Every structure is written in C-alpha cells, then in structure tokens.
User: Fold these one by one.
Assistant:
Number 1:
Amino acid sequence: MPHLLLRLSAGVALPLAPNEVLGALVLQFSEVETVRPEAVKAALTVVETYITGAGHPGEFAHLEVAVLSGRPLELRQKMGDLMHECMRSLWPDARVGVTVEVREMDASTYRKS
C-alpha cells in the first residue's frame, strides 16, 4: 500500500536506469518497521514544464511517500530521514534540490482492490 512517487525536473540526470532508481527507493523503504515490501508501489514522473524560485537549485528531485494514517510521528520522521538520505545518495549534486514529503492517506477513506 505505501506509495513512493518520485518527481524529477527534466534536467535531472538519472544515476541508474529508471527501474533501478525506483528499486533502490523501494529496497530502502522496505527496511522501515511496519512496511511490507510486497505492498510498496513506486512510480517516476519527469516534469517537463517547471520553474524554481530565485536562489533554488535549478533542478529538483522530489519524493512523496504516502502511507496509511495511524503510524506514530517518530516513525514517519524516520521514514523521511531515511528516504532523504537515500535520495541524496542518488543525487549528491547540490545543483539538484532534493526533497522528501511523508504524508498520510486517511485509512478511513482509502480503498484498494
């Protein structure tokens, strides 16, 4: 169920093949307690049209981590720190702004089949 949604600006070079980048993210995220590796889904989107504000690096790599509600704040913070470290290892260049957002999906309204 957890979703890893990676968005890259068009100028960001992939350090590996797209499926290998996603695989590295899934592998890292699967190490978090309460995460079932078989439930993780990952996708990559390249953003062709974008603008960054003055002073921001010219390119960006943003990872949205979506998990069902109910996990403690400390665990969600750990997820964010772990995934930010993984992202920065993939894009160590300071010209790429790396961000990670951990958000909760409301378990009472989330549906899957």
Number 2:
Amino acid sequence: MEDRLKEYWLEQIYDALTGNINKSDIKKLEDWRLQSAENDAFYEEVVVFFEMMEFGQQLSENEIEAAYKEFLNKKEVKVVPLYRRILPHVSIAAALLLAFFIGQYIAELKSNVAVETVFTVDKGSKSKTILPDGTEVWLNSATNLKVSRDFGTKDRRVKLEGEAFFDVAHDKERPFIVETSSIDVKVHGTSFNLSSYPKEETRVALFKGSVELLSINGQSVMMKPDDVIAYRAETGKFHLVNETLEKEYAWRDSKFIFRNERFEQIVSKLERVFNVDISVMNKAVLSKKFTGDFVQNETLPEILGIMSKVGEFSFKTKGRQIVIY
C-alpha cells in the first residue's frame, strides 16, 4: 500500500474510532476493508495501536519511566508482548512499528511532565511564596517567577522577570540558579535581592552567603556579603554599586529609599508599586535626581507633592492616569 494511501486510511480509521466520522465515510471504510486481506490487516493493526495508546495512559509513572528508558536505548518496549497476546497473527514488523509509535507516545507524555509553575504578582501588589525545597521568595510588584516541575532533580532552577528577595535553603548537592534575561545567579544557600525588570539594569544585592553571577557573554563575578552589583546589557559589563543593602530591599518593608536617583527611574518604580500610568510632559524633570525616604502608606499624590517642591514640577491625577508638567 502506498504511503499516501496509508496516511489517508489511517486518518479515516482514527476518525472512526474517535467518533468523528459521518455515515457515508463509515460505509467507504467498510468497503475498503473488504477489498483485500491486506486492507483488513492494516485496519486491525491501527485498532490495536489505538488500544495501546489508551493502555499507555493507564501505566504507572514507574512503568512509563521504564518503557521510556527502553525506548531511548532502542530496546524492545515492554508493552509489545501485550500486543502479541491481543493479536498474535500480526507480523513482527507491525509489532515493532507499534512499539515505535508507543515509545514515541510515552516519550511525549514524558516531555509534557515538566510544566512550569508560574507565580505572577501584578502592579500594586506584593507576595511571598515557599518553593518545594523550603526556599522563601518575596515577590515585588509586576514580577513573574517560573518554577519547572523538575525543580530539585539535578539543580534548583527558576526564571525571574521583575524583582524578588530570595532566602535560599542550603543544599550543596543541588545549586540554586536564578535565570534572568541577561544574567544567571548561582548559589547554594544564601539571601539576596535580585531586580531584573525589562529595559532596566539587573541588580543583585547580597545579604549573606556567596553567589556567582554569570552573564550571557561568559563573564562571571563572585559576590560577598554587602555587595551590590549591577549588570548593563548594553555594555555587557558588571559594576559594583555604592548602595546600602537597606535601599535595595526596602520594598519588602513597604518603603521607598531614593539616593541621588534620576526621576526617570523613580517614575518606573512608582508606576509598578501604585499600578498607575505616569506621563511626563516636562522632559527636563526626567534627568533630575532626588533623595528621600517614603513609606507606602503615604499616597502617591503625597509623595509627588513632596518631590514637586524640590523638582519644580506640577502634576494632575485622574483615576490611574497621572500627568506631570
């Protein structure tokens, strides 16, 4: 039977077995089966294959693991003997073909196991979560943390977009790795803050322990406690930042600490924390630098009111829209 015909009748048989076929196509399928013994045998083989797929769904995780390993090693898959009991007259070639299909099916099941769990924190919110290894993670506004289901198998790998404070459970056998768009942070047990928002430099502040920073261009830096290191994607370089740890993770305590910080950067933080959109019409104010301490129970108009006296700007609010003149 030609390959194209096989594909056509394979689809027809599958549709019949799943109930997605009309009466006229069923009649065509039955007539085709009666045309030759070869056609009828092919039909029976596909039926058994379909049954084996259903059987594969009933396998325990250990059985799937064993069958999957055998498939990768190109050995005979254990489900084939069942096929031989169901339909002993089918050829060895057909049995091997079924074994191949079943192995692929099980491999597909395996590939679907490692699904990521995503923790999302919207603008204007914060959250805390505990990972399966006991690591505690505080998530800042507008942050996504992705954890794969194989977390802890070989290593403990997560992906971060946004800002988080990690208190990592110690495990020298399985390093804890945080991936960002520009760098990876590798630790065994430590506490650190990592900020990696889109279009901003990536910053790491180490509270205790030690971490290694790895950039996408192959650079690496070892950090010691009290270090604050930033990475700029446009230059591809790390640099030590003269900042206090308190400033870096003040957000955990619902505080804002600005130290000689450009208003353009402050606007981005205020938008995330208060879930607002800020339009700056007075472009000159963007480059001005501000120093100050605020707490988040102060309203945004109160914060902007204080800053406007120093920065010589005015503003209007309408719902979530703020315009600075």
